[in-house]
Amino acid sequence: MDRKVTVAFQFEIVQPLVFHVYDVDSKYHNVPVKTLKLNDQEFLGEATCVLSEIVAKQTQSLTLNLNNKNGHTSLRNLGALTIHAEETVSSRSCVEMVVHCSHLDNKDLFSKSDPFLRISRIVESGGSVPMCKTEVVKDNLNPIWKPLCLSIHKLQKSVADLKKLHIEISGANLTLPSPHHGHEKYSFLDYIPSGFELNFMVAVDFTASNGNPQNPDSLHYIDPSGRLNSYQRAIMEVGEVFQFYDSNRCFPAWGFGGRTIDGTTSHCFNLNGSTGAFEVEGVEGIMAAYARALHNVALAGPTLFGPVINTAAQIAGQSISYNSSKYFVLLIITYGVITDLQETKDALVRASDLPLSILIVGVGGADFREMEVLDADNGRRLESSTGHVATRDIVQFVPMRDVHSGQISVVQALLEELPGQFLTYMRSRDIKPSPLHAASTSA
């Protein structure tokens, strides 16, 4: 018997699923399912997976062998369970809104304010996670921003509630462009099963400001008890999310700010110690290469981001000519305050035209105010030294210490904007998922 279960897909976290299969005694066939006592039924087996495993498959189906309870393999064949995922129509619908403000307070001394708008959603634990932000409107106390497109499933008010707000002008003044405000666009889950991939890349800070890795108070200290340091945690937690979206699971991994075996300080060296191949296999491969590098690389400095961003951008740029279905994500884990801020801005502005997003995790207690500038969460896009403005925001920065004291995880805060950045790039290039898949999910 097929039964549909609605699950809210969240790209930014690993969502484990456990399926228990029971044989329901015939005398209970007319009893509502929710009132059944499972202890009265015969247990047939269980299967586990994560939601990403299913949605990343081209067929969006996954067949799992049933095991005994607690995942123990049975000596006899207990059968198999096939799970199929399909996106609901409501989750693919968008609401387009035009938002404006009136009579804002002037915060500037010699000119009018330069306002922008950031919309966040409240998560169950009580924290807030940003959904989108507008452009900056300069010198204007009555700004009207460009139309925003928000997925209906992310809205915490119904479309009717938004209309009511607009009519009553209570709490917010929302201008809806037309009565037919809802429309469908290709979603993130249209692209992934039709062959689009997220290619994960990592760059680790090997500057001396991290402290001697032999000392327990170092950010690079490998605890013999197995307790992960901040670098290991960031690699594991972010990598676990991405591993299902990259078919070969070969991840480029670099270090920067370290003195390698040949005695030279490098701001982009292969984490695995190879002079040629920079890819490692799986998240476990990154972890192993990182641990080895701590024995083979001396911590040095300064902290430069430009070289690793340019290397990642070169890989992303080369892919465009032969494969438009790849999107690259570079995770930079760092302690130090960067010393090449303008060069980094220039690299990011150039990279904003490429299929690339950059995630930055700040570890330790350093002053990360410059990172906030790179994030462009103030609504103002980065500008290069030659006056070029980034075509889109491709950076998300999260200081690990801030998230520890809040209610959402580092990974949630870091990855929340990524599907939107992916879609913005694909739509700007008019790159569509395969027609067959798009037709099947739209039905």
First CA to last CA: what distance? 22 Å
Main beta sheet strand tally, sense and closure: 7 strands, mixed
Task: Tell me the overall shape.
Answer: globular
Unreliable runs, pLDDT <50, ≥5 residues? Answer: 173-183, 437-443
Overall average pLDDT: 83
Fraction in beta strands = 15-25%
Helix content: 10-25%
Counted by DSSP, the helix tally is 12
Beta strand count: 20
Query: What class do helices, strands and sheet pairing give?
Result: alpha+beta
Radius of gyration: 24 Å
Features:
single chain, 443 residues, alpha+beta, seven-stranded mixed beta sheet, four-stranded antiparallel beta sheet, 25% helix, globular, disordered C terminus, VWFA domain-containing protein
Quick recap of the structure?
This protein has 443 residues and is an alpha+beta fold. The chain has helices at residues 51-55, 159-168, 188-191, 230-242, 282-296, 306-320, 341-351, 369-375, 400-404, 410-415, 418-428, 435-442, and strands at residues 16-23, 42-50, 61-65, 80-84, 93-99, 118-122, 128-133, 148-151, 174-175, 182-184, 197-205, 250-256, 258-259, 265-266, 269-270, 279-281, 298-299, 326-334, 356-362, 395-399.
What does this structure look like?
Helix content is 25%, strand content 23%. The longest helix is centred in the middle third of the chain and has 15 residues, at 282-296. The protein is an alpha+beta fold. The protein has twelve helices and 20 strands.
